[in-house]
Amino acid sequence: MMPKPARIYTRTGDDGTTGLIGGRRVKKSARRIETYGTVDELSSAIGVARAALRPMLSANARAARLDAWLAWTQDVLFNLGSELATLAQQDGADGPHVEAADAEALEHAIDVAQSELPALTQFIAPGGSPAGALLHVARTICRRAERHAVALDDQESGAVSSEAVRYLNRLSDALFVWARWINDAFDEPEHVWNPASRPPAS
Over the chain (202 residues), what is each successive 10-residue block's mean pLDDT? Predict the structure, then answer.
């Protein structure tokens, strides 16, 4: 007998609520939902950047190294989403979570990538290769996720661990450096900010 496939839709959210790990239901507009929803958005943006990298993985060693870092990043973000979806007093609070070592790993990755890049002496605009531009988009989403996390902890003291906030802060820096790192690998020039810029001739 074939097992009955699980339904994607449950109809339980039709009243504007969603379930946290442990069973408690909260409004979909809650700050906690906004926070882990933004973390999910961030992981999705990173997934698009990885898709842009895929054709270059076998031909470019740096692209393959970056893809490995991004795959790990998505795993950590899933852990963070699980952590945010769990109330400390509920069952499941001992599930996956962000650790101090995760931010330390990002710091190492940033240092390695920067050692392979020319020094940045001017502000640059997001862009470059498709993968690099998408990583810049992910960086801005990461900053928003960090802001939401801080606001959630202001609203519910202890709702977000210091390790999680630190990780998001380091990740936004890493995404910026990784964008430059892959643009450099693909020999894509960076658009340097020109404060005296004028419209092009028509």
Answer: 65 56 60 89 98 96 97 97 75 75 98 94 93 98 98 91 97 98 95 92 87
Nearest-5° Cα angle at 85, 82 to 91: 90
Asked if residue 132 lies in contact with residue 186, where contact means CB atoms within 8 angstroms, the answer is yes
E strand or H helix at 81: helix 61-84
* Nearest to 135, CA basis, from 87, 194, 69: 69
- Answer yes or no: is 56 within a domain: yes
Residue ranges making up the domain that contains 76? 24-190
Q: Would you state the pLDDT for residue 92?
A: 45
**CA–CA dist 132, 164 (Å, integer):** 25
pLDDT at 91: 46
Is there a domain that residue 39 lies in?
Answer: yes
Scanning the structure block, which residue is given the tokens 């004028």? 198
Element (H, E) at 25: strand 25-27
Would residue 129 count as lying in a domain? yes
Residue 33 sits in a domain of what CATH number?
1.20.1200.10
